[in-house]
Amino acid sequence: MRVILICATTIDGFIAKDSNEITRWTKDLALFKKQTRGCTVIVGSKTYKTIQNELKDRNIIVINRNSDPNTILNKLKETEDKCFIAGGGKTNSKFYKYITDLYLTPHPLIFGDGVGLFDKTKIELNIKLKKAIKVKGSDNLYQYQYIVTNKQNTEIPLIIEDLICGFSNNT
């Protein structure tokens, strides 16, 4: 089963200014809705509170700190071929070992602080760019779709800037 982390980020790797932010800065909501409609979307309880109105027509699984990703994904594998992980940072960290794809839309913003893509978890994901999709209605905003080639727990943090700079001349 494909486990796709889907997220809008700032250039410096943040997904929100704080854990209670109702995100209004993203320009890729229509694309998010199109890609996740009819699918299972896994979110943390704080993320659910901030974006629940945008999650209609989806099977929503709201997790908490006691949720077991392996149990959840094994149950989903029985009926689905993919699901989406849509944050927040703690949820992304909890599921990072299972992520097969990353759909990231870096926005031209810098927060300097806030909720990181992977809530202070130091990991390394080796990824390969699969494709870039232009976000309709925006100037020069793209969703970058990556395939995870392998995962390991290390002391090296995943840095969004590294993902973006590696191919920016190719788009």
What does this structure look like?
By secondary structure, this protein is α/β, with parallel strands linked by helices. The protein has a single domain (2-170), classed as Dihydrofolate Reductase, subunit A (3-Layer(aba) Sandwich). Helices cover 22% and strands 35% of the residues. The chain has five helices and nine strands. The strands form two sheets. The protein has a seven-stranded mixed beta sheet with strand order 4-3-5-1-6-9-8. It has a two-stranded antiparallel sheet with strand order 2-7. The longest helix is centred in the middle third of the chain and has 9 residues, at 69-77. The model is unreliable at 153-162 and 164-171 (pLDDT under 50).
Which runs of at least 5 residues are low in confidence (pLDDT < 50)? 153-162, 164-171
H-E order:
EEHEHEHEHEEEEH
Task: Give the domain tally.
Answer: 1
Output the number of helix runs: 5
Find the CATH topology.
Dihydrofolate Reductase, subunit A
CATH class: Alpha Beta
Strands across the major sheet, in which order? 4-3-5-1-6-9-8
Question: What composes the largest sheet?
Answer: 7 strands, mixed
How much is the average pLDDT?
Answer: 88
- The fraction of residues assigned to DSSP E strands is 25-35%
